[in-house]
Amino acid sequence: MSPATSPLPAAAAAPAPTAAFATILETIDPSTITYPSADLEDPHPTIALPHTRRVLEHAAQLLRDGQVVGMPTETVYGLASNALDSAAAQRIFQAKNRPQDNPLIVHVSSLKMLRSMLKDNQIPPVYAELIRTYWPGPLTLLFPRSTLIPNEITCGQATVAVRFPSHPITRALITACDRPLAAPSANSSGKPSPTLASHVMDDLKGKIPMVIDGGQCSFGIESTVVDGLRSPPAILRPGGVTFEQIQKVKGMEHVQVYKKHFTDAAMEQAPTTPGMKYRHYSPEAEVVLVEFVRPSTAEQGSETVSGQYSLILQEIEKLKQEGKRRFGILRTSFSSSATDSHSSGNREITGNGDSAVDRSLDIDVIEFPLGQSSKPEDVARELFRGLRYLDSQNVDCIFVEGISEEDEGLAVMNRVRKAASRTITSEAIEFL
Q: pTM of the full predicted structure?
């Protein structure tokens, strides 16, 4: 790795705006990158195609030169820069128009690289089982930082958030660059996170020099963030590794979820990780959440979710009286057969769990199927894509049918609540 730059004060101003870029979009097939060994100490990829190697080296050179690059990860697309370069980190803030007190997550491609940037070059023992079980993957951990990490990355905090991603393109790019990469989501700050390269281009074309297209992100929601330095340990942001999974790991039996089991006003004002202080994930249209209602043992699930859907239709009629004319609905209330073909009145939606396509017949109401509420992993993968799609249809309001907060549903509902400007509660549904 290159020598570290001296940390600058957290309040340092961003660099002056640069000239617009002719953003290059390069496509890589992730399957052309493999890892023959499961060893995480210092792994190196096998790259099957010269094109893949050329694109990675081009991107790595941009990063070594202090530029930023859009790249795919298994969670969402990230906007990467050299995590040891304070000026490069500021280019992330500039391109995204990101608040200066919102810290960045650092990505590594080996445990050797991780140790090199930690205080005393030590990995805290509390994380041993989490790392063994869930790295590489969508899990971010808080570590005591060393002076190698500029203040721009941590916003002056004593800890740094780090993850070891599983996406082969991300891992290979970090290895090619030979530096840890800071990489928040590659979107304009506050907008829905990007899960396709086209989303990155929509937001950042002309603001960054390069985007790597590796296809749709497999999970679709940002990583789980765990602070194991606290007692008890805390999930500061739910994500791809669930509360239920973490709770089963040795040393994490008493883990708590921020804003579900505890609050910390001081930490929210000076966050140690992204996603704690600012409103996020919001499209241009108003977002309205309709809370999930758990069916009783005597009820059929379809009866309850039809209550959610009926309430949305009633709300649409009210909004039409106020002059709004075009609406979107992110649907989760489908039976197992509904993901293949579902109709409601003069609306029809078809699709499959991986790539749902709107087939609405009502030009005033566009429905986008996220997947079944009983499969939160499908809903997570499609959530941001659905928000962006409906926003592109110039709707006035987007309704989201909520799901249970079990498993990946906790992360889904965390993101929807941050995107929503108002919520229709279960009490309203019970009186239908």
A: 0.86
